[in-house]
Amino acid sequence: MKTPTETGFRRMAGGGALLAALAVGLGAFGAHALREALAPAMLGVYETAARYQMYHALGLVAAACAGLAGWADRRRAWWACVLFVSGTLLFSGSLYALALTGAAAFGAVTPAGGLAFLAAWVLLALSFLRTPR
Over pLDDT 70: what percentage of the chain? Predict the structure, then answer.
């Protein structure tokens, strides 16, 4: 893989900010519009999706900014970004789908997103600890 570009990191940072904004909107939608429509357990699932989306959107912004600024090993920071996006789609996306449809099959995807999140955080840590001098 080529070294990630400044443009790529800027796009990841911008995408992270947009994912955070979307988490706020989806969280508000869940708190207001879905409060009466979903069973309490499914509302809890939906809220977990929004909360984890926000956490990892912020992680994405941090990883992208660290790679952009040269505070971290760029390749590891890039892969952390990729895993934050993938984890958000798999983890939060599957939980949103589960809460809104009740289809238990979506729950089978959620652990893959959780593993992507874990790997992203480990790579981000390594990108800081093993920054080339």
Answer: 97
**Number of domains making up the chain:** 1
The domain in which residue 11 lies consists of: 6-129
Evaluate the CA torsion angle 92, 98, 103, 108 in order and state its sign.
positive
**Whether pTM exceeds 0.85:** yes
Token pair 């869940």 in the structure block, residue: 30
Taking the C-alpha atoms of 49, 52, 53 and 58 in order, what is their torsion angle to the nearest 10 degrees?
170
Q: Which of 64, 66, 58, 63 is nearest to 21 (CA)?
A: 58
Q: What is the DSSP string of 47-63?
A: HHHHHHHHHHHHHHHHH
Please check whether residue 1 lies inside any domain of the structure. Answer: no
